[in-house]
């Protein structure tokens, strides 16, 4: 059973869906994993509080990039309010394989970017503190 999910993950990594750039996105957020440098940027077009188009860009490990691709397929048609409340479970359901703590961080990088975009923030509050040298890291 896990082999099927693993194949799906590799397929999304090799042939990422909705990857590319968007002219004048309504919402955009770029995030990275400071431990490995992997990056994901999520761009959303929104009408009446609902996502009508999504693009993403990034580079990194198989899990982070496949997770971004899989999430991008689920986003269209969802309201920003719905996306703000998505959590780990939605991403792990999409990936369909058990992940250890390090790999979970990979899987959640695109979700973190998506949620920040949906909230319309430019920096996660605790990361502002880290940039100012006050964080505990
Ligand atoms: Fe960097 Fe996976 S190793 S996000």
Concise account of the structure shown:
By secondary structure, this protein is of the alpha+beta class. The protein has helices at residues 2-14, 62-75, 80-84, 88-95, 101-119, 125-131, and strands spanning 27-32, 39-47, 50-59.
Q: How does this model look, in words?
A:
The protein is an alpha+beta fold and 137 residues long. The protein has a single domain (2-121), classed as Sufe protein. Chain: A. It contains 6 helices and 3 strands; from the N terminus they run αβββααααα. Strands 1-2-3 form a 3-stranded antiparallel beta sheet, covered by helices on one side. Helix 1 (2-14) packs across helix 2 (62-75). The structure holds FE2/S2 (inorganic) cluster (FES).
How would you summarize the topology of this molecule?
Layout: H1 2-14, E1 27-32, E2 39-47, E3 50-59, H2 62-75, H3 80-84, H4 88-95, H5 101-119, H6 125-131
Antiparallel strand pairs: 1-2, 2-3
Helix pairs in contact: 1-2, 2-5, 4-5
This protein binds FE2/S2 (inorganic) cluster.
How much is the average pLDDT?
91
Main sheet makeup: 3 strands, antiparallel
- The strand count comes to 3
CATH architecture: Alpha-Beta Complex
Sheet with most strands: strand arrangement: 1-2-3
Number of domains: 1
Which structural class should the secondary elements be placed in?
alpha+beta
User: What is the global morphology?
Assistant: globular
Element pattern in H and E: HEEEHHHHH
CATH class call: Alpha Beta
CATH topology: Sufe protein. Chain: A
